[in-house]
């Protein structure tokens, strides 16, 4: 199972890197997989000699800010990650070879590599004056853990989505930032709600879903606190209740976790907990079997 970084992991990664990077000086940033670099002005070389002032998160984007007013923004996509190095690399990676997409080297030789597993490469790296210069950040919806993201705000968002299926609404970064395939499965399981339920739902259901969202994401954040970046993906995988657990027993009721597969993704759910015991048809535009 590919463990995609979502809000809790990216926040924990930002916290971990912040403790390592803030106050440090960048020697250079190399991009070894050239399609990963999405900007050309300012040039990547402008980061050399800059002091890192902060590391933060925008949805699933990682933002490394410098004293020059420049930001190195990264989206780790489905299979990307950041691997810390305490020492300088032995040799510079040959462009286009191996899993390394980019490499930051600090003035003492330490730093990190941005890696991506698999053959489909989607990691995106930008150098910008403002995070909002990255189109994906400019389009982000509100962050579900922001203090202003109240149940009333959530209710209005759902009402605006009408008959759209709630699974897709939770995953849409333009609607709510930071939740991906795994945590949308986990939130819906915690709320005991079908992935195909319409977004415009009664107030009692909005309340259940809001509480499930908050508790699921905050519990993941609490588990991730202080966990080294190298262990975050394993921590996430080990605590998932239904996502990625097709064929296993639901930890709540004991029913078998089922899966629905689409062209390029899939999701998991528990029939007893979420769909009244009825399995969902495993095809695009699935409906509850009658």
From TrEMBL:
Keywords assigned by UniProt, alphabetized: DNA damage, DNA repair, DNA-binding, Glycosidase, Hydrolase, Lyase, Metal-binding, Multifunctional enzyme, Zinc, Zinc-finger
Q: Where is the FPG-type domain?
A: 241-275
Q: So what does this thing catalyse?
A: Hydrolysis of DNA containing ring-opened 7-methylguanine residues, releasing 2,6-diamino-4-hydroxy-5-(N-methyl)formamidopyrimidine
Database matches in SMART domains: Fapy_DNA_glyco, H2TH
The record's SUPFAM superfamilies line, in alphabetical order, gives: Glucocorticoid receptor-like (DNA-binding domain), N-terminal domain of MutM-like DNA repair proteins, S13-like H2TH domain
List, for all copies, the residue spans of the domain called Formamidopyrimidine-DNA glycosylase catalytic: 5-123
Pfam family, any one: H2TH
Q: Which PANTHER family match?
A: FORMAMIDOPYRIMIDINE-DNA GLYCOSYLASE (PTHR22993)
**Family membership noted in the UniProt record:** Belongs to the FPG family.
Q: What is this protein called?
A: Formamidopyrimidine-DNA glycosylase
Lineage, broadest ranks: Bacteria, Bacillati, Actinomycetota, Actinomycetes, Micrococcales
């Amino acid at each position: 199972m590919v463990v995609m970084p979502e809000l809790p992991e990216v926040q924990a990664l930002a916290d971990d890197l912040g403790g390592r990077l803030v106050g440090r000086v960048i020697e250079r940033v190399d991009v070894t997989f050239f399609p990963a670099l999405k900007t050309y002005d300012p040039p990547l070389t402008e980061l050399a000699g800059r002091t890192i002032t902060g590391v933060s998160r925008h949805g699933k984007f990682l933002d490394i800010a410098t004293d020059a007013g420049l930001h190195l923004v990264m989206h780790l996509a489905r299979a990307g990650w950041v691997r810390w190095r305490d020492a300088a690399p032995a040799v510079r990676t040959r462009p286009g070879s191996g899993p390394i997409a980019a490499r930051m080297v600090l003035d003492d030789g330490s730093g990190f590599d941005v890696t991506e597993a698999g053959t489909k490469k989607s990691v995106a790296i930008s150098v910008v004056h403002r995070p909002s210069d990255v189109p994906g950040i400019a389009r982000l919806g509100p962050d579900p853990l922001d203090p202003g993201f109240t149940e009333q705000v959530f209710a209005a968002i759902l009402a605006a989505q009408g008959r759209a299926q709630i699974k897709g609404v939770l995953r849409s970064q333009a609607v709510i930032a930071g939740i991906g395939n795994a945590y949308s499965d986990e939130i819906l399981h915690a709320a005991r709600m079908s992935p195909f339920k319409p977004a415009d739902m009664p107030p009692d259901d909005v309340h259940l879903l809001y509480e499930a969202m908050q508790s699921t994401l905050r519990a993941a954040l609490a588990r991730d606190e202080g966990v080294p970046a190298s262990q975050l993906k394993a921590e996430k995988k080990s605590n998932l209740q239904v996502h990625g657990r097709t064929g296993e027993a639901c930890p709540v009721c004991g029913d078998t976790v089922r899966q629905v597969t689409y062209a390029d993704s899939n999701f998991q759910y528990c029939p007893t907990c979420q769909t009244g015991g009825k399995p969902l048809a495993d095809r695009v535009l699935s409906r509850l079997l009658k």
